[in-house]
Write a structure and sequence with these properties.
The complex is a heterodimer of chains A (about 240) and B (about 270). Chain A is an alpha/beta fold and about 240 residues long. Helix content of chain A is about 35%, strand content about 15%. In chain A, strands 2-1-3-4-8-7-9 form a seven-stranded mixed sheet, sandwiched between helices. A two-stranded antiparallel sheet of chain A has the order 5-6. The termini of chain A are far apart. Chain B folds into two domains: about 5-175, Pyruvate-ferredoxin oxidoreductase, PFOR, domain III (Pyruvate-ferredoxin Oxidoreductase, domain 3); about 195-270, Alpha-Beta Plaits (2-Layer Sandwich). In chain B, the strands form three sheets. A six-stranded mixed sheet of chain B has the order 2-3-1-4-5-6. In chain B, strands 7-8-11 form a three-stranded antiparallel sheet. Chain B has a two-stranded antiparallel ribbon with strand order 9-10. Classes of the chains: A alpha/beta (about 240), B alpha/beta (about 270).
Chain lengths: ~240, ~270
């Protein structure tokens, strides 16, 4: 039998609820294979946010918590406090993580709470029709910026760099992209290891595509993603040597 | 016109709400009283999308209704939604190229193979324009007024004259189309249920149309252009990729990038040794 999908995916819920060509599927596939590899499918708790990420509510065959908008990090931090032996993963979009839930994210990083946060950044609020989000770059046309985002509203929010300023030096912070699944899978593995072994905070932002709201086909989606990769540098963001 | 209660049911992404908006707009321009309630689930493709429309000469006091005079079914998965609104008197209009006629138990059924006509003669996306054409003719709405409404609602999408002309042709074809009454077209635009297995050149490929949503990321990501759009249809009635195993180098990119776990190519184990 061909292993066409990860074992921890729930076969009955496929085809899933994501739009055709959604980057969430690519991220969750690598996460699924990682969970299979690490053998933690009975030991994981997966918290999902409001937004397109909530459509993963029945995606996996492991424990999933649907949380309030932007409060995924907080819920998973509390859960991890109550059950330290579990692997707590918070999964959210850029709207949930950088707009409504930024304070929860910053404080989790600041306190070095042992949770893993995976943030999928597609530069818009996709579920409600592609409005401008904090990460939207200047000049990008969205449904609330028909002439392109103006420069006075900021250049596009770089979350991992911000978290690096406040996070402990033990925290693992990185940025991946769906155009390189092998690379971000390694990042996710390091992030989960950092939670389990070092008992520290870990954060991975993954740049993603949104063909529905970008109004692009597969080829153009990845072309725009490579433009995004120039603005948002890919890679691990190491702590500065002297952190007081 | 006496009161007409119209119920449209289909899937998110098909253009149900566009059909409703155009019909309502045209009816209002013609001086009728109208109400329109859209009803759909989470904002995504592939979930039920319905619309309740009432058109009347007199003011309408309550926009919702239980029994429809005309029920329109545009996707097989919307069948269960329609059942509670159909009475023996109502007309059931369905897309005979996507909905099997035998599944509709109602006697007063009228078929129109809209998806097939749009895909073969015009462009697949203009399928809802064809339905607008037929429904507006059925409701005795003025042709020019309806076309004005279409350009008003879809104006931005008609970027060049070619697309506009093609849509106008589809619309006119829709107005003159005749319903199938006793003999219906075969539902050829049904998603394929079986697995596609291809073997040869020391490789084997497995494609699952029941999961393929037609994003074509695999085609864009194939380094040797071994994948192309095939003839089989996936879960959203979009083209499933077809593989040329002679060109394929079994790099695994299609499998790695497929968001829906619908494709996998592997080298045969015996060939490796």
């Amino acid at each position: 039998m061909d292993k066409i999908m990860p074992k921890c995916w729930k076969a009955e819920s496929k085809p899933d609820f994501f739009c055709p060509g959604c980057g969430h599927g690519i991220v969750l596939k690598q996460l699924g294979y990682l969970v299979d590899e690490m053998g933690i499918d009975r030991n994981i708790t997966f918290g999902i946010d409001i937004g397109c990420s909530l459509l993963a509510w029945n995606f996996f065959d492991f424990d999933t918590v649907q949380t309030h908008h932007g409060r995924t990090t907080s819920v998973m931090v509390g859960y991890k406090m109550a059950k330290p032996s579990r692997v707590a993963i918070a999964y959210m979009g850029d709207g949930g993580g950088y707009a409504i839930g930024l304070q929860a994210l910053i404080h989790a990083a600041y306190r070095n709470d042992p949770v893993t946060v995976i943030l999928v950044n597609n530069e818009n609020y996709a579920m409600t029709g592609g409005q401008t989000s904090p990460t939207t770059e200047v000049g990008v046309v969205t449904s609330t910026a028909p002439a392109g985002k103006l420069a006075k509203f900021g250049p596009g929010f770089r979350g991992p760099e911000l978290l690096r300023q406040v996070a402990s030096k033990d925290a693992y912070i990185a940025r991946g992209t769906v155009s390189n699944p092998i690379q971000f899978k390694v990042m996710l593995k390091k992030a989960i290891d950092n939670q389990v072994k070092n008992n520290a905070f870990s954060f991975v932002e993954i740049l993603s595509i949104c063909p529905t709201n970008w109004k692009t086909n597969a080829r153009d989606s990845f072309a725009r993603l490579s433009e995004m990769e120039k603005f948002f540098p890919i890679g691990e963001i190491a702590a500065e040597k002297e952190v007081k | 016109m006496n009161r007409i209660k119209l119920f449209l049911a289909g899937e998110g992404g098909q253009g149900i709400q566009t059909i409703a908006k155009v019909l309502v707009d045209a009816a209002e321009l013609q001086g009728y009283q109208v109400t329109y309630i859209p009803a759909f689930g989470v904002e995504q493709r592939g979930t039920p999308s319905t619309a309740y429309i009432i058109i009347d000469n007199k003011p309408i006091l309550y926009p919702r209704f239980e029994s429809a005079d005309i029920a329109v079914i545009l996707q097989e998965r919307a069948l269960s939604l329609v059942k509670k609104h159909v009475t023996p008197k109502s007309k059931v209009i369905f897309d005979s190229s996507t909905v099997p006629a035998k599944l509709i138990e109602h006697a007063n059924k009228l078929g129109i193979p809209a998806t097939q006509i749009a895909a073969t003669q015009f462009i697949a996306k203009s399928f809802n324009i064809l339905i607008i054409g037929k429904l507006s003719q059925l409701l005795n709405l003025d042709e020019n007024l309806v076309w004005d409404s279409i350009t008003k609602v879809l104006g931005k999408k008609f970027k060049d004259e070619k697309v506009k002309k093609l849509n106008l042709d589809t619309f006119k074809f829709g107005r003159s189309a005749i319903f199938e009454v006793d003999h219906f077209s075969k539902p050829v635009f049904m998603p394929m249920k079986e697995k596609i297995v291809r073997k040869g050149f020391g490789k084997h490929a497995l494609i699952l149309p029941e999961r393929c949503k037609g994003c074509h990321i695999c085609i864009a990501k194939c380094p040797v252009a071994a994948l192309s759009k095939g003839d089989n249809l996936g879960v959203f009635a979009t083209a499933v990729p077809e593989i040329d195993l002679e060109k394929c180098i079994a790099c695994g990119n299609c499998f790695r990038f497929c968001p829906d776990a619908a494709i996998k190519v592997e080298k045969d184990k015996s060939a490796k040794e």
